[in-house]
């Protein structure tokens, strides 16, 4: 038997309605904010991720699905959604559109890592990308959208924000952080010993317990912010308070990819056990320029749908499947054509309808209607054909309503 590859998962018919429910919330929320959908290819040239994410990140070094195609070009299944949108922005000259340009995507992403609950090698991500504005108000807009969407989904999360500054203030911070890490090098994991020299900020994002404990005493980046970055952070806090979005400043948040600048944030929860991130994002004003475009300020976020669905389930949120409204039952084989005609007429009126395709007995058809949780049943038999009057039975309470066949066909 051929089985699904490790780290992937089928979405089966009895659970797909949960995905549709969540995706509808996403699309409805984005519509409220005037955010339009963008769709990018599942694979990109590997260089895109090397230049944008950073060649010393775990994503690039350990997690990307990279291969040479038949033209000997290095291709990578996209490990995240932000860089492909930036590539599309440049390639399609989207700066010519009215700014700010607000986009979202729902896409599969691929990372080779140890599969665990809510974190698969192929998982699905909802992301938002806002282009063109460097203001803290644009940061707030992204946070407001994420908060509204998560609230509408019925989950409880805590917003944590931080600023990792710009190139100017981060230079001084990196020097202080390198000095600190050099004094404690023996206490770092092997990966962080390399990061401490090459990109010390990555150490702050390490999940290894010994590193997490050590960096509690590391210099705090907010102590090194320049006046512009400090002002940006203060302004964002004003907007969050005005919008009644609860938050906490957490200096340990840096995010794991190289393109972030200034604002970074995470929505976290402990409903699934140990505190984990549900949504993460921030500002990345240098991303477009790093892959060959003009300097363009950007802000956005991403969240994994598998993890969010797990959180909804753990929070006791029940998502009922969409049920068939009418199940048309055939008493005799010669009435099959009439049943199909009736089903078509109901569908033409915008009513969901189905009928038996397994040549079941009438009793078995009633059992099947109950099993699929159909709301109403219509039997097409001798009496109904003779009188032209249908008996519509409500399967929940047993009440019956008579309806003329000609009224349905009208």
Question: Short description, anyone?
Answer:
With 410 residues, the chain is α+β, with helices and mostly antiparallel strands.
Descriptive overview:
The protein contains 15 helices and 16 strands. The chain has 410 residues and is an alpha+beta fold. The chain folds into two domains: 240 residues, Bira Bifunctional Protein, Domain 2 (BirA Bifunctional Protein, domain 2); 84 residues, Rossmann fold. The strands form three sheets. Strands 1-5-6-11-10-9-7-8 form an eight-stranded mixed β-sheet. A five-stranded mixed β-sheet has the order 13-12-14-15-16, with helices on both faces. Strands 2-4-3 form a three-stranded antiparallel β-sheet. α1 runs antiparallel to α5 and α5 runs parallel beside α9.
Radius of gyration: 27 Å
Classified in CATH, the superfamily of the largest domain is: Bira Bifunctional Protein, Domain 2
How many extended strands? 16
- Helical residues, percent: 25-40%
The number of distinct helices, counting runs of at least 4 residues, comes to 15
Q: CATH class of the largest domain, please? A: Alpha Beta
Q: Report low-confidence residues grouped into runs of 5 or more.
A: none
* Structural class by sheet pairing and helices: alpha+beta
Question: How much is the average pLDDT?
Answer: 91
Q: Strands of the biggest beta sheet: in what spatial order?
A: 1-5-6-11-10-9-7-8
Describe the main β-sheet briefly: 8 strands, mixed
CATH architecture identity of the largest domain: 2-Layer Sandwich
How is the topology of this model organized?
Layout (H helix, E strand, L loop, with lengths): L15 H17 L3 E2 L5 E3 H7 L5 H6 L1 E4 L5 E4 L4 H10 L9 E10 L11 E10 L4 H17 L5 E6 L3 H17 L6 H9 L10 H6 L12 H16 L4 E3 L11 E9 L6 E8 L3 H4 L7 E7 H10 L11 E5 L5 H13 L4 E3 L6 H10 L4 E5 L1 H6 L1 E6 L5 E5 H5 L1
Parallel strand pairs: 1-5, 7-8, 12-13, 12-14
Antiparallel strand pairs: 2-4, 3-4, 5-6, 6-11, 7-9, 9-10, 10-11, 14-15, 15-16
């Amino acid at each position: 038997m051929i089985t699904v590859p490790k780290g992937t998962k089928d979405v089966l018919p009895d659970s797909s309605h949960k995905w549709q429910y969540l995706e509808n919330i996403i699309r409805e929320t984005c519509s409220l904010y005037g955010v339009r959908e963008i769709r990018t290819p599942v694979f990109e040239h590997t260089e895109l991720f090397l230049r944008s994410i950073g060649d010393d990140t775990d994503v690039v070094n350990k997690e990307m699905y990279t291969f040479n195609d038949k033209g000997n070009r290095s291709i990578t299944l996209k490990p995240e959604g932000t860089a492909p949108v930036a590539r599309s922005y440049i390639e399609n000259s989207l700066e010519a559109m009215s700014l700010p340009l607000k986009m979202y995507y729902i896409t599969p992403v691929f990372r080779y890592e140890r599969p665990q609950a809510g974190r698969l090698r192929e998982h699905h991500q909802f992301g938002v990308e806002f282009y063109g504005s460097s203001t803290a108000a644009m940061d707030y807009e992204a946070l407001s959208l994420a908060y509204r969407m998560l609230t509408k989904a019925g989950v409880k999360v805590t917003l944590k924000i931080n600023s990792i500054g710009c190139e100017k203030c981060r230079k001084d911070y990196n020097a202080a952080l390198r000095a600190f890490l050099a004094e404690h090098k023996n206490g770092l994991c092997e990966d962080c010993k390399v990061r401490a020299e090459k990109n010390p900020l990555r150490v702050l994002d390490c999940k290894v317990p010994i590193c997490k404990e050590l960096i509690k005493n590391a210099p705090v980046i907010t102590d090194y912010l320049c006046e512009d970055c400090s002002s940006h952070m203060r302004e964002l806090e004003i907007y969050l308070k005005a919008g009644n979005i609860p938050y906490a400043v957490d200096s340990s948040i840096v995010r794991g990819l190289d393109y972030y600048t200034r604002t970074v944030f995470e929505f976290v929860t402990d409903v699934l056990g140990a505190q984990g991130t549900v949504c993460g994002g921030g500002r990345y004003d240098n991303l477009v320029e790093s892959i060959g475009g003009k300097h363009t300020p950007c802000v956005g976020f991403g969240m994994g749908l598998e993890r969010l669905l797990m959180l909804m389930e753990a929070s006791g949120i029940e998502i009922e499947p969409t049920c068939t409204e009418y199940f048309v039952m055939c008493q005799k084989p010669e009435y099959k054509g009439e049943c199909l005609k009736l089903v078509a007429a109901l569908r033409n009126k915008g009513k969901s309808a189905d009928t038996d395709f397994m040549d079941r007995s009438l009793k078995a058809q009633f059992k099947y209607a109950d099993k699929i949780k159909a709301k109403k049943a219509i039997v097409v038999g001798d009496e109904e054909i003779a009188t032209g009057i249908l008996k519509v039975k409500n399967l929940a309470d047993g009440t019956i309503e008579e309806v003329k066949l000609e009224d349905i066909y009208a």
